[in-house]
Structure formats: structure tokens, C-alpha cells
Amino acid sequence: MRVERSPLNEVTRTKRVRWYRSPIEPQELRRLMQRSDLQGWFQALGNLALLAATATLTWYLFLQQAWVGFAVALYLHCTFGSFLSAACHELDHGTVFRTKRLNRVFLRIYAPLAWFNFHDYALSHTYHHRYTLHPDGDREVVLPQSPTLRWLYVLQLLTVNIAGGPMCRGLWPILRYTVTAALGLPLRADTVGDTEPVGVRAQEWIAALYEAHPEERRKSIRWARILLLFHGSVLVVGAASGLWLLPVLISLPVAAANWWRYLVFMPMHCGLRDNIADFRKCVRSIRIDPLSSFLYWRMNWHMEHHMYAGVPCYNLRKLSRAIAADCPPPRTLVGAWREMRTAWKRQRVDPGYQYDTPVPTRAQALAASDARSSDALGGSIGDLAPAVLGR
User: Fold this and answer.
1) Please, are residues 54 and 291 in contact by the beta-carbon 8 Å criterion?
2) 57 partner at 20 to 30 Å CA-CA among 193, 244, 296, 324?
3) Using alpha carbons only, what angle is made at residue 383 by residues 377 and 386, rounded to the nearest 5 degrees?
4) pLDDT one-digit tens code per residue, 42-79
5) Cα(298)–Cα(313) distance, rounded to whole angstroms?
6) What Å distances lie between residue 191 and 104, 178, 203, CA to CA?
């Protein structure tokens, strides 16, 4: 059943969430918010180097007709490529490089490879940070989520994801939405779907965003056309030259071998509480291996990212240590999935159930944190917000 909600431009005028943020010394927070071009280059070029290496290896083994090695290399390339939107997320925040222009340049390098419309995402994700899991202002993530392990969806995750689903994009939803946006057609529930180019579950979300901010739609349309031109050109070049592997290596990875992406992306909010002003109870951090964290652009420290979104991804682990005494310990990946699945099974019997994360006593920290919760430094989300939403 569809729930009627206030228009988003009314929400931005009237709704304020007084977020609880674990206390940290302002001087320490400023230090952690310092951006580094050197670390930005390492993160951004490192991810591209991994993709280039697996693409080169795949191409070489194809030419050598070493089919087993070719299949393994291609699968690894697609597994890495399925994480591309994580790069776009952080670059859209504008916190990776100290030199602002580099954030914009690398965003425009990664976004075509990820089929990522960063104009849609900037609008959507600004609301997500300001109103996290408050459904009247944030429908980028809507609870409850389903951490499904149904065999048909798992099969898609292990191979080519055609139809899409939770936290992973499919070829058909990607193409359908991009064409719809490029043609400037009216956005309807059946054309937006449960796609992840903008991280949405609620089907009317993108339409609601552009109803509230129609002046931003032109940017989305223009970028969608660039995406189609880019991938169309790759397809034409591949077909004309007989190099059919070219579009496979460039255009396919975001929708193939999505299994590892699904495992590490899903724990962000699944099974937790909505309509609460405490990030410790509506966001989850997990400990994962260094390679997965690197591919994920350190967003496994997701609670810390929401609490202080102006902190660059490469400083989130340090932030986690700084506020650890006031936060629940990060889950392991297995522990997070056990927690999500347990909550999901209970929700099938009790739809109102949400897991209430135990947190340290906050009495001593509350006054200091509340005083700082509206501070521009603590509430920064980097350079994410479009001008129409202010910064």
C-alpha cells in the first residue's frame, strides 16, 4: 500500500533531525577531516589499477586461448568492477582529494564505468544523510530490507545479474532507467524500479526528488545521454573491430559477479531501527579484510561515515578508534549477516520488529554531543549537496 508523504521541498523547510554524534574533541575532528591528495591518488588510482590489471590479464589469456585462466580472470575483473559505485559515492561527497577539481575529474572517470548518474545520487544521498532512515525525508534506504539468499537471486549474483535486486544492479534496470532519463520521459514507479544507480528502494523516490527540484533534472538528463553515448560507442567499436571482449570488459562488470559486493554492502542498515536520531542504532559498521575494504572505499566503517560524513574514507578507521568508547563494537561480516537474518526472520512474524543495537551509556557524553550535533563541522557531508540544497 502506498503511503502518502509530504513533498520533499516541504520536508526540507520543516524537518530537522537533532542527531546524536559520539563526542570527539574538535581539534581531533578537524585533523581527521583533513583531505590528502596523496591518499586520494592511492585510493583512486589503486582501484583503477586493479581493474586495468584484471582487464589486461583477461585479454592476454583470451588471446592465448587459455580458457580456464580467461574465465577466472574475467570473473575476478567483474567482481572488482561490481564495487565501482563505491568510488562514485565517495567522490560525489568530494572528500577524497584535497584538490576539489580532482574529485570532480575522477568522479567523471568512474561514473561512466559504473553506469552511475551522480546528479541523481547527489540529490538522493544528501537527503539520505540529513534524514537517515526517516522515511518522510529519506527513501534512498527504506526498512525493512530483505537479506535474501534465495537460490535464484544468488545465481544472479554469482553470474550475470539481469533483473537486479537488493544492493545490486541488473542489466535490465540499468538500461531501462538510463534510457528513460536520457529521453527525459516522465519518471514512474514502473520505470524506476528497485534499482541501485541511486541506491533506492522506494519506487517513487527519484520522481519525488525531481518534483521538488525540477531544475536539477536537466543535469540528470544530460549525464544519462553521456552514459548512453559512452557505452554505445564502446559497443560500436567492439562490433566494428571484432573485439567483442571490449564491451564485456568495460560495460558489463557492474552487473556481473555481484556476490561479494552484496555480502559487504548489505549490512549498512539492514535490520536496524528507523525514525531514530542515533546513528549507532540505524547504521552498522563491520570489520572486513583489507582488500574488500579498499574496494569498498572503506565504507565498511559506515556508522562512522554517517556520524561524521566530512571525514575522508581513508581516515574512518582512525575515527572509529577515537569514538570507540561511545559506540557498539563493529560486527564481523558473519556476525552482521547472522544479525540481519535473525531480524528478518522475526520480521516475517512480527512486521514491526527492529533490532535495537545495545550502545554504551551516553549520559556523560550527551550534553557535549548535543551541543555539537548541529555544528557545521560535525554535520558536514563534504561537497555532496547540490547548490539547490545548500551546504
Assistant:
1) no
2) 296
3) 120
4) 999 999 999 999 999 999 999 999 999 999 999 999 99
5) 6
6) 29, 10, 9
Angstrom distance (rounded) from CA 199 to CA 133: 13
Q: Do the beta carbons of residue 365 and residue 23 sit within 8 Å? A: yes
| 72 φ, ψ (degrees, to nearest 5) | -65, -45
The full length of the chain comes to: 391
Residue 386 predicted with pLDDT over 60: yes
Residue linked to cell 563505491: 86
DSSP 63-95: HTT-HHHHHHHHHHHHHHHTTHHHHHHHHHHT-
What is the distance between the alpha carbons of residues 23 and 13, in angstroms, rounded to a whole number?
28
Report pLDDT for 53.
98
- Contact criterion met (CB below 8 Å) for 251 and 234: yes
Q: Are 143 and 272 in contact (CB under 8 A)?
A: yes
Q: Counting Cβ atoms within 10 Å, is residue 21 exposed (0-12), middle (13-18) or buried (19+)?
A: buried
**Predicted confidence (pLDDT) at residue 189 exceeds the cutoff of 90:** no
The answer to whether the predicted template modeling score (pTM) of the entire model surpasses 0.90 is yes
- Please answer whether residues 225 and 184 qualify as being in contact, where contact means their C-beta atoms are separated by less than 8 angstroms: no
Q: What are phi and psi of 52, to 5 degrees?
A: -65, -40
User: 3-state DSSP helix/strand/coil percent for the chain, to nearest 5?
Assistant: 60, 5, 40
> What residue type is 339 in one-letter code?
E
Q: How many Cα atoms sit within 13 Å of 51 on the Cβ side?
A: 27
Q: For helices 118-130 and 217-241, what crossing angle results, to 10°?
A: 130
DSSP state letters, 246-305: HHHHHHSGGGBS-HHHHHHHGGGTTTS-SS-SBHHHH---EE--HHHHHHTTTTTSHHHH
